[in-house]
Design goal:
- The chain is mainly alpha-helical and about 500 residues long.
- The protein folds into 2 domains: about 375 residues, Serine Threonine Protein Phosphatase 5, Tetratricopeptide repeat (Alpha Horseshoe); about 80 residues, no CATH class.
- It is built from 20 helices and 6 strands.
- Helix 15 runs antiparallel to helix 17.
- The longest helix has 26 residues.
């Protein structure tokens, strides 16, 4: 299905400033770099597209840094030298890891692009107030999203509220996590007022006021998770009432709605369906605008058996679904077959019993190459909003009760073909979320948010670590990643490394 919106083309601005493939070690660009741009409303639209462009790595990143880190995946490779091995193995030497560095650089690149739009936006060039408000709202939503991604990976961060010179950037230290959250929440509250409740035509897929509200609700829930004493993303602030108010608004007043068939949510011909509140948009056609995720989560030996699949799709290494996740599905749970490819026979006749994610895979529509899968990646779904509401109620948010929690969970279970349950607890809810969102990159963050990451992972590690590469147990410092080594050496003493990392 042809996409209605192409958000991820390198605009003329971004071609002149930095290529789509290049990553910045420091955010700022000089004033001279943009002197000949931002002269028309169309150029501002190009620029905001450039800010959206930094969402393109999110699907692979969530697979690398959340799914692989969690109890959903056992990712130790045969050689132990793949980039994700140290992530999977909780290594203390991750500061030199390319995945950790890319997450930092790409997010701050997105923040720089959003800041550039905000700095330059003015009524003299964009005279239409509605267009100007929407540009500002999108830039603030994206800046908040990039900062939220960063604070969950790294904890304390430098705050850039505008584009600064490279010299000025070297004088800006990391701010505390509460200060970063204040900045995020300010942006989202502003975006809620500036953005439309929906887009039409070619603009479908851009951020809406409902997306800002849903993201802010997730921020409140994350902040409210137990404080692990590490200056990480959870602060124990008990903002469940605030989250519940936002979630109820989305449920009661938005155009987003329940989708009765689970598989159809991820159907290539049903993108931007009512379950999708905000996603990363991709488009096939050999233009470099497609997704790499379906092949990246798979394995070449599988794709070699499927006609017309461009090869190689991924590394030859399995990152196999953990036995714990496989066994967590009840019989007849339709989500398992949608989410997981469990076994196949390779082109040499060898039977492979290990499993991998296939949730975003459609073998009949692979695109032109391994970078070209035409499937969007959901960042916030309506189902997530419902289950976040259940979470807020169970945590003591005012205005809901146990029956409402049970009803929400049983809606999700009924769609999965399962019998209803009663007396849903936080542990039951966490498990239901695991099965519903497996492969969508939420698991690690939710283990942290629910206060279960140490308990769950320390029970899981000895059961799954067949190659004996993981530690016997993890500690709270493992919840966040180290600051990339390249950032520590730009100016000695500007940033202090996160505790316990080399």
């Amino acid at each position: 299905m042809m996409k209605k919106i192409t958000l991820y083309i390198c605009s003329l601005l971004m071609v002149s400033l930095v290529s789509c493939e290049e990553e910045l070690d420091q955010i700022p660009l000089s004033e001279a770099s943009t002197a000949n741009f931002y002269r028309t409303p169309a150029e501002f639209e190009q620029a905001i597209n450039g800010a959206y462009a930094q969402l393109r790595p999110f699907p692979d990143r969530y697979y690398d840094l959340s799914e692989t880190r969690s109890d959903n995946i056992y990712g130790s490779s045969t050689t132990g030298v793949r980039p994700w091995d140290p992530v999977n193995d909780f290594a203390r030497t991750l500061s030199n890891n390319e995945l950790i560095e890319a997450a930092w650089n790409q997010n701050f690149n997105g923040i720089m692009r959003a800041n550039t739009v905000l700095d330059r936006l003015n009524a003299d060039v964009v005279s239409d107030e509605t267009q100007r408000n929407r540009l500002e709202g999108q830039a603030k939503f994206l800046r908040a999203l990039y900062y939220f991604d960063l604070v969950r990976w790294y904890g304390k961060l430098p705050i850039y509220s505008s584009v600064v010179t490279p010299a000025a950037a070297l004088e800006i230290p990391r701010s505390s996590v509460p200060e970063v959250y204040d900045f995020i929440m300010s942006d989202l509250n502003s975006a809620m007022e500036l953005l439309p409740d929906r887009w039409t035509g070619a603009n479908v897929g851009r951020a809406t006021s409902w997306a800002a509200k849903a993201l802010l609700a997730r921020v409140h829930l994350t902040r409210s998770g137990p404080d692990y004493g590490i200056e990480g993303p959870t602060l124990g602030v008990n903002e469940y009432d605030q989250a519940l108010t936002l979630l109820n608004d989305i449920i009661n007043n938005s155009h987003h709605a329940w989708v009765s068939d689970y598989a159809s949510i991820f159907d290539y011909d049903n993108e931007n369906n009512p379950d999708i509140i905000f996603d990363v948009q991709f488009q096939s056609g050999g233009l470099g605008l497609g997704s790499t995720l379906p092949g990246y989560m798979g394995v070449s030996s599988y794709f070699n058996t499927v006609p017309n699949i461009p090869s190689p799709q991924s590394s030859v290494e399995f990152r196999e679904i953990s036995d714990d996740l496989l066994n967590a599905y009840e019989p007849n749970d339709v989500r398992k077959a949608v989410t997981i490819q469990q076994g196949f026979t390779d082109d040499f006749g060898n039977v492979e019993t290990r499993a991998f994610y296939r949730k975003f895979l459609n073998e009949a529509n692979p695109g032109l190459d391994r970078f070209d899968w035409p499937i969007n990646f959901p960042l916030i779904r309506y189902t997530d909003v419902l289950l976040m509401k259940a979470e807020a109620i169970l945590r003591g948010g005012a205005g809901g009760g146990q029956q409402e929690v049970d009803d929400i969970v049983n809606m999700v279970r009924a769609r999965a073909g399962l019998e209803p349950v009663s007396g849903v607890t936080l542990d039951m809810l966490l498990e239901e979320r695991r099965l519903e969102f497996a492969g969508e990159g939420l698991r690690w963050h939710e283990l942290v948010r629910f206060g279960k990451v140490i308990e769950k992972m320390n029970a899981w590690l000895p059961q799954e670590d067949e190659l004996n590469r993981m530690p016997a147990s993890i500690e709270p410092f493992n919840i966040i990643y180290p600051i990339p080594f390249t950032q520590l050496t730009v100016k000695r003493g500007l940033y202090e490394q996160n505790a316990e990392y080399n």
